[in-house]
Write a structure and sequence with these properties.
Keywords: DNA-binding, Transcription, Transcription regulation. By secondary structure, the protein is mainly α. Helices cover 69% and strands 0% of the residues. The protein folds into 2 domains: 61 residues, Arc Repressor Mutant, subunit A; 120 residues, Tetracycline Repressor, domain 2 (Orthogonal Bundle). It is globular, with a radius of gyration of 22 Å.
Length: 204
């Protein structure tokens, strides 16, 4: 074995800590501009200023990259809420969700979901993954509420809680109607609460 005379071996270029969020950001941008079929790993790599190998070290396929980027975006734009009550959680999430749906970015995202999910099964799988993540967050919110002693109905269904609001967004996107404004958050949350909470029966 040859001596190294105290010289440390050269290492490769250090990893860029900003690479992953930058890759996700450009993946979403290209999805919005071109749809799933038109987005390529080559284009994402070029836009993010990284090599393809950098992307494939983190995501084994374009599908996984797109899914992760979309889920990350929705988590950032519509984060989970833990306010101490299910009513507070719903109102906060609804306010943020409605603000997102009324933004130019949010409207473009919803239109893309509607058009691409019907055209391409791989795109549909991406949006199912986003919904499933939101459903799991809602399930956890219900469990926290039960643990606090809130009167959550045994029939409270996190799937329907998520899908009814998503359905409002999809219908409005399909028909070209404006999205409910953020000021409607409390009213829409109250509709959900009536389906979720065991409310006292009023005397006739």
């Amino acid at each position: 074995m040859e001596p190294n005379h105290g010289v440390s071996p050269r290492r490769g270029r250090p990893r860029d800590p900003e690479a992953e969020p930058r890759i996700r950001r450009y993946a979403v941008q290209l999805l919005l501009e071109r749809g799933f079929e038109g987005m390529t790993v080559d284009d994402v790599a070029e836009a993010a200023g990284v090599g393809k190998a950098t992307i494939y070290r983190r995501w084994a396929s374009k599908e996984l990259l797109a899914n992760d980027a979309m889920a990350d975006l929705f988590d950032l734009e519509i984060p989970d809420a833990d306010t101490g009550s299910i009513a507070g959680d719903l109102r906060q999430v609804y306010r943020v969700a409605l603000a997102f749906a009324n933004s130019e970015y949010g409207r473009a995202m919803i239109r893309l979901a509607v058009s691409e999910a019907n055209r391409d099964e791989r795109s549909a799988a991406i949006y199912r993954g986003v919904l499933e993540r939101r459903i799991e967050m809602t399930r956890q919110a219900l469990e926290r509420a039960r643990a606090r002693g809130e009167p959550i109905k045994s029939t409270a269904d996190p799937v329907l809680m998520v899908e009814w609001m998503a359905g409002v967004f999809v219908i409005r996107a399909l028909t070209g109607q404006p999205m409910p404004p953020p000021e409607d958050a409390d009213r829409l949350a109250d509709i959900t609460l009536r389906a979720v909470l065991e409310l006292p029966v009023s005397e006739p």
